[in-house]
Amino acid sequence: MGLQLRTIASPEGLRRLKLLRDELRDLRSFVGEDLTTLIGEVERRILLDIEAAAKPGVSIHESRRNLDAFIDAAATFSSSSERVDLTAFLAWLEAANDEENGLPVTQLEASREAVQLLTVHASKGLEWDVVVVPGLNEGQFPNDRDSRWSSGEGSIPWPLRGDAPDLPQWDWEQEDQKGWVDSEKLFSEDARGHAEREERRLAYVAFTRAKYVLICTSSVWGGGRSKPTAVSRYLQDLYDLGQQAPQALRSCPGCSPVTKATATRLMPMCAGPAGRSIPWAAGARLWRPPLPQ
Questions:
Q1: Where does residue 242 rank: exposed (0-12), middle (13-18), buried (19+ CB within 10 A)?
Q2: pTM of the model
Q3: From residue 156, how far is each of 105, 147, 164, 196, 225 by CA, in Å?
Q4: N or C end of the chain, less CB within 10 A?
Q5: Measured in Å, how far apart are the chain's first and last C-alpha atoms?
């Protein structure tokens, strides 16, 4: 192996490989330490702390936000797990990624100085002058994935989940197989209805992050699809509402077109003058106040 490296690597390349070897060797000596000490040492060895502190125009607190959140997660794991070595921690991170789409996202601060890319969940509680919501296709948003736990072994049984009281329940204790199958069909319908309501709540969060301008897009082709994909029902609802009431928001200058008024089939309506209900989609598409300077 050494002869092969000397053949294919330059002297500078060999020097860097040796530095990496020595660095990994030193870091292995910290594997027996507590997890926060190990993470801190890795952070210092790869100069991640300096890189974070050197970000222009960002406070040290903001630049370290995700690093500190990761260290907090490691500390929480160490205090609550029976086994707290590195292997167990890595397995815990892998399980969090597979079962819960990763660790909880730390709260982000909205910035007017940059384009920020976020999931809808991470955008909760924030607001921007302009918001773009792409990918409004059926099967994508809303998602058509079958998430009920009776569909396979990949999901935790809902009665064991912390939010079980808010989830549909499958009455699987039946006298015969026909009753069991029939009850699963009812549960499947309830689960689909629950998933649709959750997706609509998520759409509400996405669409109400915009203070002045909301841009929603859809594509017929893309993402490796071999067949055309239908427009999301949510985008169609917004378009229909904009067509039905193009003058609505002009009658309610006090209503924000996105954050205070809401669409008919997506969410409740806000009360305008004389008790009139005002679909915000009309404002999002056809009328907007001037952007701040």
A1: buried
A2: 0.53
A3: 22, 10, 11, 20, 30
A4: C
A5: 63
Selected from 2.60.40, 1.25.40, 1.10.486, 3.40.50, the CATH number assigned to the domain covering 2-100 reads 1.10.486
User: Can you tell me which residue has the tokens 């009281």?
Assistant: 165
Backbone angles phi, psi at 150, to 5 degrees: -80, -5
For the chain, helix, strand, coil in percent to 5 are 50, 10, 45
pLDDT, average across residues 231-252:
70
pLDDT digits (tens, 9 = 90+) for 92-118: 888 888 777 777 766 667 777 778 888
Residue-range domain boundaries for the chain: 2-100, 121-286
The CA-atom distances, in angstroms, between 41 and each of 26, 28, 46 are: 10, 11, 9
> Which strand (E) or helix (H) includes residue 211?
strand 210-216
Tell me the C-alpha distance between 177 and 162, whole Å: 29
Are the folds of 2-100 and 121-286 the same? no
Q: Rounded to whole angstroms, how far apart are CA atoms 108 and 65? A: 9
Per residue in 36-51, is it b (16+ CB within 10 Å) or e — as a string?
eebbbeebeeeeebee
Q: How far apart are CA 90 and CA 31, in angstroms?
A: 12
Domain 121-286, architecture per CATH: 2-Layer Sandwich (3.30)
Please say whether the beta carbons of 155 and 250 come within 8 A. no
